[in-house]
Amino acid sequence: MGDSKISPHTSAASFLSSFIPDAVVRRFRFSPTGVKHQEIDEIKGAVLFADISGFTPLAERLYRTHQQAGNELLTAAINDYFDLLVHQTLGFGGEVVKFLGDAVMIVWNEVGSQSLEKCAELAAQCALRMQECKNKHDLKLKVGLGVGTLYEIIVGGVNGRWEYFIAGDPLNQAFNAEHDADPNDVMLSPTFYELLLSAGLGPKIERKSKEIVSVKLKSLKDTLDIGMLGYLDKRS
Hints:
The chain is built from 7 helices and 8 strands; from the N terminus they run ααβααββαββαβαββ. By secondary structure, it is α+β, with helices and mostly antiparallel strands. Strands 1, 2, 3, 4, 5, 6, 7 and 8 form an 8-stranded mixed sheet that branches. Strand 4 (140-156) and strand 5 form a beta hairpin. The N and C termini lie far apart (72 Å).
């Protein structure tokens, strides 16, 4: 029988990949020699931005009751909640791009035969499932969704150090939609909503004089048939 032990190099690579966005892991899998220059790749995809609500009150409550030990309890609480969200993300084929304090940014992109509409479907389903995740500290989530053209960017190069990030209008869409959300809300950008409509995946509501700022998604069937939708207009 052959040696079934995992080599130190394989073990280290697996460990390090858990800290790196999947897009970067793929990049080095196809080009293991490393980055030689700055890169920009255009992709189509959906973006989910989720922000944990209740972080500050929880931090204050834990400090009052546990003093310095409250910091460790707070870290454990946030990590436990993020574990639940990441589990849902992986289940729906999303890729965690970055954790931003008590927020997380996730992307679904067109890979293989997966269409932009399918990216939107998976992102919306994941967002709704995230809102069903329960935690013992009653933390809540505000979610915004955007869709369209994204740019995967690798910059840097000083002393061999590189930085990966994504940019594009879908990020602004998701950030603005999340800003319009209340705890437990999933908000769609107008572009995200219009994509569903153009694909015949939702009802169209006439808005003759007022612009739709964000759309609240309340339910989404497996067939991507939108159920009840609420509308938010900042000028109403």
